[in-house]
Amino acid sequence: MSDGSKGSKDPAEPGELDALRSQIDRLDVQIVGLLNRRARLGLEAGRAKVRSGRPVADSEREREVLVRVAMANDGPIPQDALLAFYRQLIDTIKRLEELEGIGPEGDSNG
Q1: Does 32 map to a domain?
Q2: 108 in Cβ contact with 96 (< 8 Å)
Q3: Predicted pLDDT at 14
Q4: How far from the centroid of its chain's Cα atoms is residue 93's Cα?
């Protein structure tokens, strides 16, 4: 006697899973592009600060970004995980600024 299923597997699941994975793969490519675009804009903001004589480091702006991100989060990513990711993103951009000589360790400011 069979009910048409084999254990917990539904015959439609592999196709559905493939489609979901394909969407994830396409989205990952978009996310990587957006993250790199975000980093380039952060670097350009650092250069603009140097040109205008402002300090590159801006902890108030970092707080504003984190608050804005937290307010935009409607889940399912937990708030602490999202904020940790953004802190890491900001730290990465700061390191890139330093490598380009526009951060606190660079020769253009500091």
Answers
A1: yes
A2: no
A3: 79
A4: 11
**Which CATH number covers residue 72?**
1.20.59.10
Closest of 96, 77, 76 to residue 85, by C-alpha: 77
In sequence order, what are the residues at sequence separation of 6 or more whose Cβ sits closer than 8 angstroms to the Cβ of residue 66? 83, 86, 87
pLDDT at 12 over 90: no
CB count in 10 Å sphere of residue 106? 16
pLDDT (tens digit per residue) in 64-93: 999 999 999 999 999 999 999 999 999 999
- Number of structural domains (the chain) is 1
Contact 109, 49 (CB under 8 A): yes
Is the pLDDT assigned to residue 20 strictly greater than 70? Answer: yes
Q: Which domain holds residue 45?
A: 13-99
Residue 106 lies in a domain: no
Q: What is the pTM of this model?
A: 0.79
